[in-house]
């Protein structure tokens, strides 16, 4: 065992918890292109977005100037029920690998939703309540986001309708039950509660639904219900902003011990957790204050950064949202059915896309069997059963640490452990039974997705 | 919101973590009666127990003199991966209840096993490794204990066979998968791997198994396999000893703020978590240093303290273990099928039984629908989805706080939140669907159980 000057876990006191989110856009010399209204082709205004999102979230979405955006006491108060989260020194993983690298991870899974999603759910529910709204809607696939928003809605006293992809609500009945326990209404989608749902049901009787359809239903329900708004769990700038508590806490904790990471690694689905983890470090980097390597990790089966196009595209597969300029596989792209866990989004946060495009971020894609190898060896020595999503970052952190073992470099590696795998055990079963396979889309597969990217006249 | 001088969560630093377990027996004027060998009727010696348990655990089991028993660095090292656990001030619950009482809880659910069970699993696996053993066996019903021991066995590099009640392994396939992911072998019981299992299978083909049968198989496997021992997750003195980290951490945390609880509440199944929570406070009480009220809470459907007999009985329903003097419903007692979650043990820790018999502990029984009411209102304001077991303590803590609201007493209430409800969602579903019923055994039901208590000549 190495010496223990740095504790196994670094916790912050309540006084040390962030009072501001970190708006990395304040330091970006080139901002990402604005959202476009798909009907007019013109940039979305606040008024365009108001029927869908809370006012405060829209202001945050459009803010490119203020580095610090205050976290209201009403949100910090709820944050105290599940934050601060620890930065853990992975002593046992280091020992198992025999590496000279130092590995740290920020663990966001110690709450009932099981992931970092609660950071933004808390903020968005708070702002809805403050605006005098009565209810929220959202969609959920695997259910982590739906759970997080149900917890936040219960805390702030808001009604919530969660449109859950029908096949998920049937395959993950217990996830559905957590959401119901927090008082939210779970509606298997497609449903007969919206015109969009009824249309799909008429065209495809007996369909198991899709995330695209669930989004359409949730948005329709929000825009047709008084005092109701829609809430999204990733991709958008304000969601990434709320997730910067991850990076801010990490930085405060590591700064106490004089540690600046050489590499920061996060898994990338919509990009909000990775963006939140790196934000304050990236802000420093953009100001020439560090030279950290930032690595976003995505599944080989859904490789939006590494193999996607940088283009305007819809945020949903039902083509109902504004257009965002981002790395995308095409809003019609569907990851293979053998793909486990989340990270199955066709696009990527516009902020992450811009930073990647400008060379500040490196992206890697990994195959899922290697991801699960990493997950299981991590679980056995560090105790925590990771979410498959998080295990993408573990995979690359282990690979980096093994490189250090070869070269003798004593790199300091920080990665984001976004959640636990308690609700992904069907995937672990596949792995344990030796039945997990990998899938890498062919260029032809990708071409089909690219064909669904809309033509936009600049 | 009340003022926040006491933080929402009190964490200890690694230096403040306990270096010793607390052996409450050192302060008990009357010790519990010794285990008896059922064949001879004489007290069990170390030699009687050695084929089944690790040597070090037996020494701890029989130690009635040393208040402090050192936690070896090899265990403290593993403890650091999931400890210290926080003492939480339940500000939001207090606010919701409008009580003038202060409510605190010690949360043991922030690890992959989801409960306090890992505290003893870690210790027992470490001692097995230290003794040069190669493998362990145990039984598991709902699976929390099996998961905890699988995690500890993976950490220390031991093989593990978990005999899982067949019907549970079928109804909780995901629990089984967590255990497998940590590398343990899950054997649905009854199985053909032991003589005990084969006998049951022959007599009752197609049976779903029972905990009693699983214990018999696990003990047989341990005693017939070289370098193998059996491990138990509750009831025994050494298990309770390992659980005293809960009470020691709680006391260190609360002492920092000058807080001594007026009431300490814990749920009681086998009694090890409750015993571990109260141990250091009880030690002080036995020395006349405090006047704390200790309340053990059990299900109305399995009321060993409140309606059981104080008698020598077998620890398992298969009648293979030594006899323990304890409060018992009879080793043949089976709680009603509608009973959710754990706390379904027929007996009670001999230490807890003795302290209860001598008037140091109060016991209450509660009905499960009221337990789930408490669980859900706790989840909505404090965020954590509690295990049904833990919610027994929540129920009584809420009732105590509501009494304070009536009387104006500003009692300080501490309760043990032993785990999360992630793997108990079938029970939550029943509750959410309004299909949960209560069951209180009649005196006639109890008489049937009492009839299975063996006759012992004193």
How would you characterize this protein structure?
Two copies of one chain form a homodimer. By secondary structure, the first copy, chain A, is of the alpha/beta class. Chain A has helices at 46-49, 55-62, 73-79, 91-97, 118-130, 144-156, 166-171, 173-181, 195-203, 211-224, 237-242, 244-256, 272-286, 304-307, 350-357, 368-382, 388-407, 425-432, 443-450; strands at residues 9-10, 20-22, 68-70, 87-89, 102-107, 135-140, 159-165, 185-189, 228-230, 263-267, 293-299, 309-314, 323-328, 362-366, 412-417. Chain A has a seven-stranded mixed beta sheet, sandwiched between helices. In chain A, strand 6 (135-140), helix 6 and strand 7 form a beta-alpha-beta unit. Chain A is globular, with a radius of gyration of 21 Å. In chain A, 60% of the residues are buried. Chains A and B meet through helix 6, helix 8, helix 16 and helix 18 of A and helix 6, helix 8, helix 16 and helix 18 of B.
């Amino acid at each position: 065992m190495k010496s223990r000057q740095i504790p196994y876990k670094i916790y912050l006191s309540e006084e040390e918890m962030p009072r501001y989110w970190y708006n990395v856009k304040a330091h970006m010399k080139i901002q990402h292109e604005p959202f476009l209204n798909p009907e007019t082709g013109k940039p979305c205004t606040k008024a365009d977005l108001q029927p869908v999102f809370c006012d405060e979230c829209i202001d945050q979405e459009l803010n490119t100037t203020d580095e610090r955006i205050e976290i209201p006491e009403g949100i910090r108060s709820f944050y105290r029920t599940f934050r601060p989260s620890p930065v853990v020194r992975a002593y046992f993983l280091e020992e198992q690998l025999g590496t000279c690298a130092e590995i740290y991870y920020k663990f966001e899974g110690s709450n009932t939703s099981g992931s970092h999603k609660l950071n933004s759910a808390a903020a968005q529910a708070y702002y809805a309540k403050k605006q005098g709204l009565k209810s929220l809607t959202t969609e959920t696939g695997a259910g982590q986001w739906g759970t997080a928003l149900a917890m936040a809605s219960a805390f702030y006293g808001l009604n919530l309708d969660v449109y859950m992809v029908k096949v998920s609500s049937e395959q993950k009945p217990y996830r559905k039950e957590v959401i119901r326990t927090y008082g939210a209404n779970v509606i298997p989608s497609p449903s007969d509660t919206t015109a969009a749902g009824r249309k799909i049901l008429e065209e495809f009787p007996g369909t198991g639904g899709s995330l695209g359809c669930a989004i359409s239903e949730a948005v329709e329900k929000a825009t047709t219900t008084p005092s109701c708004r829609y809430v999204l769990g990733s991709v958008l700038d304000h969601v990434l902003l709320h997730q910067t508590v991850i990076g801010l806490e990490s930085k405060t904790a590591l700064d106490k011990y004089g540690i600046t990471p050489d590499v920061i690694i996060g898994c990338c689905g919509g990009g909000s957790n990775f963006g939140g983890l790196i934000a304050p470090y990236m802000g420093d980097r953009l100001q020439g204050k560090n030279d950290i390597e930032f690595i976003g990790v995505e599944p080989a089966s859904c490789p939006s950064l590494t193999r996607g196009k940088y283009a305007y595209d819809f945020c949903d597969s039902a083509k109902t949202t504004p257009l965002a300029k981002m790395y995308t596989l095409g809003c019609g792209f569907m990851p293979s059915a053998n793909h486990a866990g989340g990270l199955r989004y066709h696009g990527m946060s516009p902020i992450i896309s811009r930073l990647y495009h400008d060379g500040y971020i490196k992206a890697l894609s990994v195959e899922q069997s290697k991801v699960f190898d990493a997950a299981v060896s991590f679980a056995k020595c560090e105790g925590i059963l990771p979410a498959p999503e998080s295990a993408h970052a573990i995979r690359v952190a282990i690979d980096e640490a093994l490189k250090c073992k070869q070269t003798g470099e004593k790199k300091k590696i920080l990665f984001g452990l976004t959640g636990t795998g308690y609700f992904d055990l069907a995937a672990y079963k596949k792995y344990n039974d030796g039945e997990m396979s990998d899938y890498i889309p062919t260029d032809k597969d990708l071409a089909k997705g690219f064909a669904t990217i809309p033509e936009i006249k600049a």
